[in-house]
């Protein structure tokens, strides 16, 4: 394994490649929204560690108490994303990133690490099979196919918040909860809005713009959650084929 890792800071954030798949050389609304979101989070103990290259090799995590997810627990670290893609796979980068996070947790006296998983791997969630090789175990579940994975260092365990198990809302409209953590979100919302307006589909986009809103959500959430006809559908970002399948239900 070659290459150096760096942790983003407020001083380096504006000039550092954020290593999601977006490769545009021009200013990109999703990337800029991500920078603004991340700038505030870095002051709360959020860590964004990446390979010092234009590559999708990074881990992103935060103290669970400050993590924008409806998960409860004392003194844990929540892992939002752990990605290694393309030519960088199979070279030990994922192992190095997760080991760094685990050592960081130990040095800070944390109770453990946790992350969102599912009974069946979801496209926009980190590889849970990889995490389980490090000792992560399922510690809470929902009736709609999602799981909370944790690696405990002291025997205590996190849990889903009380609203997560509900997975239902009052509105029948296509309803999407989102925040600006993922650079793909603005363009995905634009695509969905255009389709719904052109086809007369009632919709509602609800920005999760505070920690309090995130902790109180009625479903699992990593940065995106979709409801239709009052029922939770997915945490996956939607392309038009996936959107159309949901709307046909």
Task: Tell me what you see in this structure.
- With 249 residues, the protein is an alpha+beta fold.
- Helix content is 25%, strand content 27%.
- The strands form three sheets. Strands 1-2-3-5-6-8-7 form a seven-stranded mixed β-sheet. A four-stranded mixed β-sheet has the order 11-10-12-13, with helices on one face. Strands 4-9 form a two-stranded antiparallel ribbon.
- It starts with a strand and ends with a helix.
- The model has no long low-confidence stretch (mean pLDDT 93).
Quick recap of the structure?
This protein has helices at 29-42, 93-107, 128-133, 185-199, 211-215, 240-247, and strands spanning 5-7, 47-51, 57-63, 71-72, 76-84, 112-118, 137-141, 146-152, 159-160, 174-178, 203-207, 224-228, 231-234. It has 249 residues and is α+β, with helices and mostly antiparallel strands. It has 2 domains: 5-160, Gcn5-related N-acetyltransferase (GNAT) (Aminopeptidase, 3-Layer(aba) Sandwich); 174-247, Glutaredoxin.
């Amino acid at each position: 394994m070659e290459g150096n890792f760096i942790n983003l800071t407020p001083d380096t954030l504006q000039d550092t490649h954020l290593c999601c798949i977006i490769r545009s050389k021009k200013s990109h609304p999703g990337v800029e929204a991500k920078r603004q979101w991340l700038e505030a989070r870095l002051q709360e103990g959020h860590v964004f560690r990446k390979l010092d290259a234009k590559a999708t090799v990074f881990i992103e995590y935060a103290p669970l108490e400050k993590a924008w997810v409806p998960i409860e627990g004392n003194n844990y670290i929540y892992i939002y994303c752990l990605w290694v893609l393309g030519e960088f796979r199979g070279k030990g980068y994922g192992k190095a990133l997760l080991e760094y996070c685990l050592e960081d947790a130990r040095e800070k006296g944390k109770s453990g690490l946790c992350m969102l998983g599912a009974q069946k791997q979801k496209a926009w969630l980190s590889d849970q099979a990889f995490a389980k090789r490090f000792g992560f175990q399922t510690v809470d579940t929902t009736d709609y196919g999602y799981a909370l994975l944790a690696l405990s260092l002291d025997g205590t365990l996190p849990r889903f918040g009380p609203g997560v198990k509900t997975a239902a809302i009052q509105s029948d409209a296509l309803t999407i909860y989102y925040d600006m953590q993922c650079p793909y979100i603005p363009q995905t919302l634009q695509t969905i809005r255009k389709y719904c307006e052109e086809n007369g589909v009632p919709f509602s986009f609800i920005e999760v713009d505070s920690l309090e809103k995130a902790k109180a959500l009625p479903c699992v959430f990593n940065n995106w959650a979709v409801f239709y006809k009052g029922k939770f559908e997915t945490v996956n970002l939607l392309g038009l084929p996936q959107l159309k399948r949901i709307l046909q239900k």
